[in-house]
Design a protein that fits this description.
about 575 residues, alpha+beta, Immunoglobulin-like, Glycosyltransferase, 2 domains, about 35% helix, binds ligand 9MR
Length: about 575
């Protein structure tokens, strides 16, 4: 492949000895150049976007200021979602590891970026470590957390049953688990997607997360990813009722203030019980039973029994919708169309057990594999079911595996066509609450298609999709805290807002552009924020008040861990 391009390469590649043009000290970083601020893998596609510019050329300089590459900007037309005239700078052929800056005459320079095989290694570890820092009910110690340490908070040892749980009076212990997001609550619906996405990463690329990410369980001989997931499962287990049903959430009655976790002393309740919480439980424990089957047989058997009890409950109670009772105002994760939830749980249980009853369910209730934007905690579940069926460890029959593989690859092809046609060369066209997790979820589809087909075009699509997250987007932000030059400094994140440290906890992707402006200021909603720009792909504001564009959440970070780990692994550098 490389040989084929030699002539183009020589034409574009200006050797440093012929043309030395060190960056002018006065040249400013241009907001019109949108680049992956972390960088590009050595042998991957490398593209940046330049907006609203009449320029036709670009150059790239190395760390000594020497021009090492020159190219033409290609016109991509106007993007209706951002209102910008878009051009693409393609420097794929620059394959020398190093630190670089891209320049557009008359506009300025890009943020610095790197080319190398290890570009995503640190963020892959950090985005998983973020989950450790999100743990409830234990002291987060300095030796693991550095300056982000804090004392034990939310022990959750005396949680009263709210009447909506179906129990009258009494309390239970419900410790451990991760805080859901910028708030300090714990929700079964959302834990399910998150656990399943992380376990899917583990099952697809088992060696990807080592046993040395510096968490308390590091060095125990088990991947830190599994240790981290188990901390959530330990909590989720407490949420199963004796009849197999599963309580919906463990929360205070309303959201706490922006206080340190140890200062949030609002009483916490066991709230609700729904078909969705039972199915989230059945799916995550059904999958965990498969994963722990090779790590710990007893635990695996216990997980499977719990999962099947929850499944049975859901089959008997197929239409129990969760709605916040009048005295509860924390997250609702509410929906009432459960076919995707059922399909996902049945697929996990089929992949783990091979039992005919789950196959029968799947065959009678096929839900198609496709990408739907928004609310990944419910819209993406069926896709996680497909990923389970096609795993090497899956006990589903070959015919079903074949069919599901085709569905995944076909959808990936459809999304590549969308990416190719989009001015920015990314596949998302709808920007709602958590849009960054939509982008990452699309990336996971490409990564799965690559696993199934071995075709490089899926890695390229995954790469360009990930570039969006790190800065090749209409806001110019690298959306992951602590990674890139222009990153969110004020996420809607209680742990970070209350910790007296300027830099937010690193490794979290924020929700991203949200054209629904759900938190915008109005006369009736005096706590809202003002969005400076209103084009859908630009509806983002780095303000603590913006919970609808700038919060962090476990279900948004799980696919970030997936994508950055996938690319690290692909480049061969992750140890
Ligand atoms: O802080 C809350 C955040 O974690 C949730 O995602 C969000 C939506 O449920 O709600 C936030 O809380 C806000 C509440 O809904 C309305 N009053 C202002 C609160 C934030 O300061
Ligand atoms: O991620 C959720 C998003 O899809 C919903 O539209 C939104 C409003 O219901 O709630 C989001 O979830 C929040 C949850 O309710 C409470 N914890 C913070 C979550 C992230 O904003």
């Amino acid at each position: 492949m490389k040989k084929l391009f030699t002539s183009v390469f020589t034409a574009l590649f200006i050797l440093s000895s012929c043309n030395n043009s060190p960056q002018k000290a006065s040249e400013a970083v241009s907001a019109k150049i949108r680049i992956n601020q972390l960088g590009y893998l050595t042998e991957s596609v490398k593209r940046a976007v330049v907006v609203n510019s009449e320029a036709e050329e670009f150059t790239v300089t190395d760390s000594l200021g020497k021009t090492v590459f020159a190219g033409t900007l290609s016109d991509r037309g106007v993007w209706d979602k951002s209102g910008e005239k878009v051009k693409i700078a393609d420097f794929t052929l620059l394959e020398v590891p190093g630190k670089y800056i891209l320049h557009v005459k008359g506009e300025g320079s890009s943020w610095p970026f790197e080319i190398g095989t290890g570009v995503f290694d640190e963020v892959s570890r950090s985005s998983l470590k973020a989950f450790y820092l999100q743990r409830a009910s234990m002291a987060i110690e300095e030796k693991y957390a550095g300056k982000y340490s804090h004392p034990l908070a939310h022990p959750d040892m005396n949680c009263a049953f709210h009447p909506s749980s179906g129990r009258t009076g009494g309390e239970m212990e419900s410790p451990k688990g991760w805080y859901d997001a910028g708030d300090y609550n714990k929700y079964i619906v959302n834990a399910g997607y998150t656990v399943s996405m992380l376990l899917t990463l583990y099952e697809s690329l088992p060696a990807v997360i080592s046993d040395n990410t510096n968490i308390p369980e590091s060095g125990n001989g088990i991947s830190d990813l599994l240790d981290e997931v188990k901390y959530e499962l330990d909590w989720a287990e407490t949420m199963q009722d004796k009849d197999g049903g599963v309580f919906f959430k463990l929360t205070s009655k309303s959201f706490s203030g922006f206080v340190k976790p140890q200062d949030d002393t609002l009483p916490r309740f066991v709230v609700g019980k729904s078909t969705t919480s039972a199915l989230n439980f059945a799916a995550m424990f059904g999958q965990a039973a498969r994963v722990w089957g090779v790590v710990d047989k007893d635990l695996s058997a216990k997980y499977l029994a719990a999962a099947e009890k929850a499944w049975t409950w859901a089959v008997k109670n197929p239409a129990v919708v969760y709605k916040n009772p009048s005295d509860i105002s924390t997250g609702e994760y509410g929906h009432s169309e459960f076919s995707g939830d059922f399909f996902w749980a049945a697929a996990q249980l089929l992949a783990t057990t091979g039992k005919p009853e789950y196959l029968l369910y799947i065959n009678k209730n096929r839900v198609s594999f496709d990408f739907i934007s928004g609310e990944n905690w419910r819209s993406y579940l069926k896709n996680l079911g497909y990923f389970a069926i096609v795993l090497p460890a899956s006990k589903a029959d070959e015919e079903l595996k074949e069919e599901f593989m085709k569905s995944i690859v076909n959808e990936a092809d459809k999304q590549i066509a969308i990416l190719e046609a989009a001015p920015y060369r990314q596949p998302l066209n709808s920007f709602v609450w958590g849009s960054n997790s939509d982008i990452l979820g699309l990336g996971v589809i490409f990564a799965q298609a690559y696993r199934l087909s071995g075709e490089k075009k899926y890695v390229d699509a995954a790469t360009e999709t990930t570039d969006y997250i790190f800065g090749k987007n209409a806001t110019g932000y690298s959306f992951v805290t602590g990674f890139g030059s222009k990153t969110p400094m004020n996420p809607h994140f209680r742990l970070s807002a209350a910790d007296d440290i300027t830099e937010p906890i690193p490794g979290w992707v924020v929700g991203g552009p949200n054209a629904n402006l759900n938190d915008e200021y109005s006369e009736s909603r005096t706590y809202g924020v003002v969005y400076p720009e209103k084009e859908p792909a630009k509806c983002f504001v780095d303000l603590t008040g913006s919970y609808a564009s700038n919060e962090i959440a476990i279900n948004w970070n799980a696919p970030l861990v997936y994508m950055t780990s996938f690319l690290s692994e692909y480049s061969g550098s992750l140890k």
